[in-house]
Design goal:
This protein is mainly alpha-helical. It contains ten helices and no strands.
């Protein structure tokens, strides 16, 4: 009788694992792969950081605007918009807060429902983080009305080339002149300081509530 032909033994993955002393479930590989992807995603998200990430469109702060517009900057510093963050401090505007049903002694400087309208760029790249980290972004600054300067300041609008075209700067992200829609993001009936019948008079507030509008040296 001829010897039976010996066939190679085909160990399955589980049999191999058994030889090694453990059994690897068949579903382990897909689950492990998913966990690796989730871990990699978390590492990427937290390593980039919301405020450290550099991109076109980042907020640059009023100091950058001041380089070309010192008169407007000096005028703006005196406005309520520039100092609107102070309203959130304990004891400030006590009469108005009392009428609005707010706690006059509460510190609202960390209140996430207040910060979007009392700071600039809150929660956005280069925007307000805290009064300790980004004091220059407290209050309603230039970029609240004119758009984030990272896309046009020092590029299209460069002191070295002051004869830029306004239309080109607008295409790059400049908001000029500011629109009523931008103002109404904060000047609306959701503010605790006004009632449901609040009416925002855009033309009047632009004239009285913002900085002086000086004649520009260069025509754009």
């Amino acid at each position: 009788m001829a010897d039976e032909e010996k066939k190679p033994v085909d160990f399955s993955e589980e049999e191999k694992d058994e030889e090694a002393g453990f059994t690897l479930p068949r579903c382990a590989l897909p689950i492990t792969g998913l966990l690796v992807l989730m871990l990699a995603g978390a590492i990427i998200y937290f390593s980039m950081g919301k405020y450290e990430h550099i991109s076109q469109g980042t907020f640059v702060g009023p100091g950058k605007c001041k380089e070309c517009h010192p008169q407007q900057y000096a005028s703006w510093k005196k406005t309520r918009m520039a100092n609107s963050f102070n309203v959130l401090r304990p004891g400030e505007k006590s009469k108005e807060k009392r009428l609005a049903g707010l706690d006059t002694e509460k510190d609202y400087t960390l209140d996430t429902s207040c910060l979007p309208c009392h700071t600039t760029g809150y929660g956005m790249v280069g925007g307000f983080v805290s009064i300790e980290e980004t004091p220059e972004m407290a209050g309603v600054t230039c970029e609240s009305c004119h758009g984030h300067g990272g896309s046009y300041a020092t590029t299209v609008m460069d002191p070295k080339t002051p004869n830029f075209e306004t239309a080109t700067a607008r295409k790059a992200g400049l908001v000029y002149p500011p629109t009523e829609v931008i103002c109404r993001e904060c000047h609306n009936s959701r503010s605790p300081f006004v009632g449901m019948n609040y009416k925002f008079h855009f033309d009047e507030r632009v004239r009285l509530g913002t900085h002086e509008h000086y004649h520009l040296k260069y025509q754009h």
